């Protein structure tokens, strides 16, 4: 038995070629106007003997037929030379196709008298010109709400009832054409295949990596309650939504949010420990933030009578007073101004010589002695 194969580009299908014996065929013509041209290549090994086993010395040409249309159609308009059909010199031809289907072919041999052999075994070639095809995703990774452009073919001119999914989670589409779709990564999506489904079929998947948030830096890395902090990183998502930030498990109030930067204030009750960003995808790595106790470095003046205005200088007092306080030897003082590094207050009635202390939600500062004069 000899073989014939039909291939498209790198795909090859082999079929058996029967030994030559004479049979006639009625050849009809077909028209396939307005469809897609598909170029194919046919190769075969020519028979060397007749059906009775005697040497074949008068092989003249070959014919190639298509049979999947419900009728037999000869592909070649003129006899195919015996120089064709080898791997080095395949017979190239085009057929018109549309939609989804399977092409089927067989070949025959013809002798110098015009006698034609029985058909070879049939070879098939599947094609699909309707099913959606994804060629690329841009970007190929991101987090929830990342805008992704899906490029490919056969998506259809408009969305209609078609859809996009990220690892089986439906996505919201913002634009749709036959070759490009824009959509956002849906909440609940995980790493896996992106697929386009139309009324024809479902595309093969292209992998999209859904990334958990990642913190790369904190600025500053230490401070007190109320300190405004910038968290730099990736995959935070374009907006906060239900995402959040915590300081050693204490939730913080966010003032701005983008995919790679978050601003927030150190919350009341926070202590030294990891800052973490949590999104619907997961929880980030932790970066340590040191919540500092207030520290007094100087008093000005260092002595005076009741009612004297005193400026307390230092660090980590916090940006505003809130529930924080100042005491002169355990007697609370009235504050007139407050910042993270300086406080102004008056020496309270009943104060005696002793330590001035600043107390915040983080804790109490060191004491600096103030001498109360009579």
Structure description:
This protein has strands at residues 2-8, 11-17, 36-44, 59-66, 73-74, 80-81, 91-97, 100-111, 123-128, 133-138, 141-142, 147-153, 163-166, 169-170, 172-176, 180-184, 192-197, 206-210, 214-219, 222-223, 228-234, 244-247, 250-251, 253-257, 261-265, 273-278, 287-291, 295-300, 303-304, 309-315, 325-328, 331-332, 335-338, 342-346, 354-359, 368-372. With 374 residues, it is mainly β. It has four domains: 2-128, Immunoglobulins (Immunoglobulin-like, Sandwich), CATH 2.60.40; 133-210, Immunoglobulins (Immunoglobulin-like, Sandwich); 214-291, Immunoglobulins (Immunoglobulin-like, Sandwich); 295-372, Immunoglobulins (Immunoglobulin-like, Sandwich). A hairpin with a 2-residue loop joins strand 22 (244-247) and strand 23 (250-251).
């Amino acid at each position: 038995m000899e073989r014939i194969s039909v291939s498209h580009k790198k795909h090859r299908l082999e079929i058996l070629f029967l030994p030559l014996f004479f049979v006639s065929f009625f050849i009809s013509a077909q028209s396939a106007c307005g469809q897609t041209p598909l170029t194919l290549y046919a190769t075969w090994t020519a028979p060397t003997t007749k059906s009775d086993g005697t040497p074949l010395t008068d092989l003249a040409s070959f014919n190639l037929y298509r049979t999947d249309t419900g009728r037999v159609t000869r592909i070649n308009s003129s006899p195919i030379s015996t120089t064709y059909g080898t791997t080095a010199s395949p017979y190239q031809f085009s057929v018109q196709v549309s939609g989804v289907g399977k092409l089927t072919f067989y070949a025959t041999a013809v002798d110098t008298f015009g006698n034609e052999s029985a058909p070879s075994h049939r070879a098939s070639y599947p094609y699909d010109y309707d099913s959606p095809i994804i060629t690329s995703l841009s970007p190929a990774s991101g987090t929830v709400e990342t805008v992704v452009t899906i490029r490919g073919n056969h998506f259809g001119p408009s969305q209609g009832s078609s859809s996009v999914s990220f690892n089986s989670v439906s996505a919201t589409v913002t634009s749709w054409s036959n070759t490009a779709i824009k959509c956002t990564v849906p909440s609940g999506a995980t790493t896996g295949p992106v697929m386009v489904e139309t009324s024809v079929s479902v595309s093969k998947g292209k992998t999209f990596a859904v990334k958990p948030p990642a913190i790369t830096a904190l600025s500053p890395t230490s401070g007190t309650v109320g300190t405004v902090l910038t968290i730099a990183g990736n995959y935070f998502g374009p907006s906060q939504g239900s995402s959040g930030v915590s300081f050693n498990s204490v939730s913080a109030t966010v003032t701005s949010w983008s995919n790679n930067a978050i601003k927030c204030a150190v919350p009341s009750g926070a202590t030294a420990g990891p800052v973490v960003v949590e999104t619907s995808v997961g929880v980030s790595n932790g970066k340590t933030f040191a919540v500092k106790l207030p520290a007094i470095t100087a008093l000005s003046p260092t002595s005076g009578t009741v009612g004297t205005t005193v400026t307390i200088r230092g660090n980590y007092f916090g940006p505003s007073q809130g529930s924080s306080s100042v005491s002169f030897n355990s007697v609370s003082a009235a504050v007139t101004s407050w910042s993270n590094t300086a406080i102004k207050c008056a020496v309270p009635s009943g104060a005696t010589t002793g330590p001035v202390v600043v107390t915040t939600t983080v804790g109490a500062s060191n004491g600096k002695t103030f001498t109360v004069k009579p």
